[in-house]
Amino acid sequence: MTPSTAAPQERAHTLPLVLLVLAQVVLFMIPLIVLGSAIGWPASLRLPAAEALPLIAAKAEAVQLGYWGYLVTAVAMVPLAVALRRHFASRGANGMINDTMVAFGVAAAILKTLGIVRWLTAMPMLALAHGNAADPGRRAAVETAYAALNGYAGSVGELLGVQLVSGLWMILVGVLLARTDRRAVGIAGAVVGAGFAANALRSAVPALEVLSAVMPPVGLAWLLWLAVALWRSR
């Protein structure tokens, strides 16, 4: 392929990549706005079962809509990671780092999906059972089931998917950006990714809990910067 034909093809590949990056920002607005206004998400994730279950039942439609939006956001990480791999490979960044980056992106999508699905299936059922329970003992049993499922699936989806593996993915994206002449946005991505990965350790280091509120908006801002950098590099 000659340089004259390579340039138009590269520009054609860049637009879908930029749209996939922007889709992460736009799609994340669905759970942020819908669930935030309906149930106070993401703070509601840490509510005790006796408070969370009636809230989920009362806002059932909003919970479904918000988490379907979040699920699409998670799944959209797969084509984004694959498109980034192609982008970096076209600039000579082939090899283990690029392959590992796409593997982390796909793994993060899977782990997020496993965590999100509980809100589309099990949690609404538990909320309904809790509301229909005639005696305190049955309600207590439902609350115990909610707490156990939320603790396990939350660790898989949030601690591993959203934070640890997504953070490692962002670190590698940052390294690859820095190697392909996007040094500033690359270094920023590696730093933001390290913040997400560190937040996964908050159960062992409670002081890291502050990152839970800081990292999501910082991550969204970095994605916007990434979209601009990719567009300008075409």
Write up this protein.
With 234 residues, this protein is an all-alpha fold. The protein has one domain. The protein contains nine helices and no strands. The chain has helices spanning 3-39, 49-58, 60-75, 77-90, 96-120, 122-132, 136-179, 183-199, 211-232. Helix 1 runs antiparallel to helix 9 and helix 4 (77-90) packs antiparallel against helix 5.
Give the SSE map.
Elements: H1 3-39, H2 49-58, H3 60-75, H4 77-90, H5 96-120, H6 122-132, H7 136-179, H8 183-199, H9 211-232
Helix pairs in contact: 1-3, 1-4, 1-9, 2-6, 3-5, 4-5, 5-7, 6-7, 7-8, 8-9
Which overall shape is indicated by the principal axes computed on the Cα atoms? elongated
Query: How helix-rich are the residues, as a percent range?
Result: over 70%
Bin the strand percentage.
under 5%
Give the beta-strand count. 0
Low-pLDDT stretches are 1-6
| Order of H and E elements | HHHHHHHHH
Mean pLDDT: 92
Q: Any idea what the radius of gyration is?
A: 20 Å
Structural class computed from helices and strand pairing: mainly alpha
Termini distance?
17 Å
Per DSSP, the total helix count is 9
| Total number of distinct structural domains | 1
Tell me about the biggest sheet? none
